Structure formats: C-alpha cells, structure tokens
C-alpha cells in the first residue's frame, strides 16, 4: 500500500490473541475533521481493502461538504464461523482498542455484517457514544432501518435519469445486493414510480419484467432467506443481473463486481454505485466511452455519512432526510455540470471538486 499527499494519516493494526483475529483501521485524511467511516467484518478484509475504502470516504465527505475526513475499519473474521458471544467480545475489544484515536481522529459506523447491536457493543468497549454513529436510539442514534444510504442512492438515480432525459416513472432498475442499501434503494425508487425488474443476493437473482414489489420481495427475503425464493419472476444466475438491458443498474453489495470479465456485457444506460468501489477503476473509462453514465460511489452512496453527520450533531429523522436529499442533489448536479463543461468523466469531475475542498 502506498501513500500520497492526502494520506493515510494513521494505519492502526490490532490483534486479538483470544480469538486469533486481526483488525485494521486506516484514518486516511483528517484535514476537514475526524476521519469518518464504518467497520466491516468479513473473512477476507485486509489493510489494502480498508485503505481503498478510507480514501473513498475522504472524497465522499469532501464532496458532501461535511466537516469529516475519511477513514475505515475492517475486522478479519467471517461472522458465520463464530458465535454471537464471540462476535460481541471481538467488537467490544475493537472499541476498547480505539480509545486513543476515537473520537478525536476517528468516528466509526456500521458496515458489512455490522449494525446497531454491534455499535452498542463498540460503545460498551470504548465508553464514548460520540466515537461512533449508527447507534441504537437510546444511545443517541438515528435508527439504521431509516435507510439513509438507499435514500441517497435513489435520489442519485433519479437525477441521473433526468440528465439522460428518462423519466423516473417506469424506468427499469436492477439492484445487485439486497442488504440495507439495496432494500431501501428499492423502496424509495418504487415510491418515485420506477420499475424494479431484477434484484439479486448471494444465492442468485430474480427477474420480472412486470416489476418486483418492495414489500413482497422483502417479505420473501425475511421469511425464506433469499430473493430467489420469490413466488413470481424468473430465477437467474446472480452474475446475469449485470447483463440485463435496463435503464439503471445499482451494484449495492461488494467491491469490484464490475470488472474486465463482465464490463463488455453491461447494457444499462446508467450505473449508480450503491456499494463502495464496486467498479474496477480501469472499467470506469471504458463504460464512459460507451456512453454509460456512472454515478460514483462517493457521490451516490453518501446518504449514510450525511445521516451520520446528522446523528452526530443531533438532528431528528425529518431534518436528516432533508439534509441527505439537499446534499445528494447538490453533489450530483455539481459533478454533472463540471463533467459537461470540462469533458472529464463524472468520477474525475467529482474527484476534482472533492480535492479542491481538501486544499
């Protein structure tokens, strides 16, 4: 991993001998304020991935014009392989380990396999609720189930459609990943009148040209464990969701899912990155050359960190949603206007705006 003039400011690696677990926090840049970024727990996450995600957070917070820098954390263990009690011990230990850095240099949050309950455990270990957002309501948090990230992704998609002269009403949408981001992107886009025709999760995908209703698909996911068990629609391979001829494709799960192996098969007119670093960097240029509008992760999914800021300063739910909508609209508009003016791809235009704000 190499640094540059932006960072990283701190790389913190931790080891828990009881559970034989490594963890890492990368605080990329703190020029605008403490580094902001969530904790993910997977069996494969390492310093390199955490570093890339921390840089995305630096750009995301600057682009959203928030008084935060960028950071990220990873705990390298597959939660499916450990007990709930072991997970609690690990997260509590992790919170305790960051006492000297948070909240002065780092404010954490939920990410993959980490939600409100885990944020409570973090506070139990750390001691200061201000060191983390995405907490339960009784600790001063805004409920995670409000879906602020998905809300921001939905508004990013709406603005991208508008820029292409496509009405959101009836626009066809495919969503890869049906976790917190995908579920709420579905909900809010459906409320706008869009037609969600395909959704995938780790077991595969479901496709229905007539549309998949949010309430019905969520009920299937909750009761049967996978969207592929839905009663209507055609079950297809998960990777086929990237090849569908839709107006908008929303990758909303893991990194690098659009890469050299599938980029040539992309037929969507617009890609809105609900997940962080979901497109391999060299593929972004190729998509742009083919006329695909890509709304980059650090613009599209900034709703979560904007909501974190709202929680940090004590806003209520109504004010939080207003702030997310306002900042997402402002960011997408600024990026597209600069891209049109300079000829830069949208991601480069957004990066330039963010870098200007970082001085």
Please specify the SSE layout and strand pairing.
Layout: E1 10-16, E2 21-29, E3 35-36, E4 39-42, H1 47-63, E5 69-76, H2 84-97, E6 106-107, H3 116-126, H4 148-163, E7 172-176, H5 180-192, E8 195-201, E9 204-207, H6 214-224, E10 234-236, E11 248-251, E12 270-272, H7 281-289, E13 293-295, H8 297-300, H9 303-313, H10 317-342, H11 346-357
Parallel strand pairs: 3-5, 3-6, 4-5, 7-8, 7-11, 11-12, 12-13
Antiparallel strand pairs: 1-2, 2-5, 8-9, 9-10
Helix pairs in contact: 1-11, 2-3, 4-5, 4-9, 4-10, 9-10, 10-11
Report a brief summary of the structure.
This protein is 40% helix and 17% strand. By secondary structure, the protein is an alpha/beta fold.
Report on this model:
With 359 residues, the chain is an alpha/beta fold. The chain folds into two domains: 10-59 and 68-141, Leucine Dehydrogenase, chain A, domain 1 (Rossmann fold), CATH 3.40.50.10860; 148-302 and 332-354, NAD(P)-binding Rossmann-like Domain (Rossmann fold, 3-Layer(aba) Sandwich). The chain is built from eleven helices and 13 strands. The chain has helices spanning 47-63, 84-97, 116-126, 148-163, 180-192, 214-224, 281-289, 297-300, 303-313, 317-342, 346-357; strands at residues 10-16, 21-29, 35-36, 39-42, 69-76, 106-107, 172-176, 195-201, 204-207, 234-236, 248-251, 270-272, 293-295. The strands form two sheets. A seven-stranded mixed beta sheet has the order 10-9-8-7-11-12-13. Strands 1, 2, 3, 4, 5 and 6 form a six-stranded mixed beta sheet that branches. Helix 7 links the parallel strand 12 (270-272) and strand 13 (293-295). Helix 1 crosses helix 11, helix 2 (84-97) packs across helix 3 and helix 10 (317-342) crosses helix 11 (346-357). The longest helix is centred in the last third of the chain and has 26 residues, at 317-342. The chain is globular and about 50 Å long. The two termini are 23 Å apart.
């Amino acid at each position: 991993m190499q640094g540059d003039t932006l960072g990283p400011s701190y790389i913190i690696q931790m080891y828990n001998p009881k559970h034989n677990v490594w963890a890492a926090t990368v605080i990329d840049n703190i020029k605008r304020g403490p580094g902001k970024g969530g904790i993910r727990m997977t069996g494969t996450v390492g310093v390199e991935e955490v570093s890339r995600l921390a840089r995305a957070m630096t750009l995301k917070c600057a682009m959203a014009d928030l008084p935060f820098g960028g950071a990220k954390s990873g705990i390298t263990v597959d939660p499916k392989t450990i007990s709930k009690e072991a997970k609690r011990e690990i997260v509590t230990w992790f919170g305790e380990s960051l006492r000297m850095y948070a909240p002065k240099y780092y404010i954490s949050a939920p990410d993959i396999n980490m939600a409100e309950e885990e944020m409570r455990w973090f506070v139990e270990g750390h001691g200061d609720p201000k060191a983390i957002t995405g907490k339960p309501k009784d600790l001063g948090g805004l409920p995670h189930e409000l879906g602020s990230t998905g809300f921001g992704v939905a508004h990013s998609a709406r603005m991208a459609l508008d820029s292409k002269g496509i009405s959101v009403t009836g626009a066809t949408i495919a969503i890869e990943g049906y976790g917190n981001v995908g579920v709420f992107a579905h909900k809010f886009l459906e409320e706008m009148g869009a037609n969600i025709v395909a959704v995938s999760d780790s077991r595969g995908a479901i496709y229905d040209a007539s549309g998949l209703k949010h309430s019905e698909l969520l009920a299937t996911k909750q009761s049967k464990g996978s969207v592929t068990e839905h009663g209507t629609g055609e079950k297809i391979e998960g990777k086929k969701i990237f090849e569908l001829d839709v107006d908008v494709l929303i990758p909303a799960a893991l990194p690098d899912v659009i890469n050299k192996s599938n980029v040539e098969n992309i037929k969507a007119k617009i890609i809105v990155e609900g997940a962080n670093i979901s497109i391999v960097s060299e593929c972004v240029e190729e998509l742009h050359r083919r006329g695909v509008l890509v709304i980059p992760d650090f613009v599209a999914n900034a709703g979560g960190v904007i909501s974190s800021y709202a929680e940090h300063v004590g806003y209520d739910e109504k004010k939080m949603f207003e702030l997310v909508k306002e900042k997402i609209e402002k960011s997408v508009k600024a990026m597209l206007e600069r891209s049109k003016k300079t000829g830069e791809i949208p991601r480069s235009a957004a990066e330039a705006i963010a870098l200007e704000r970082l001085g």
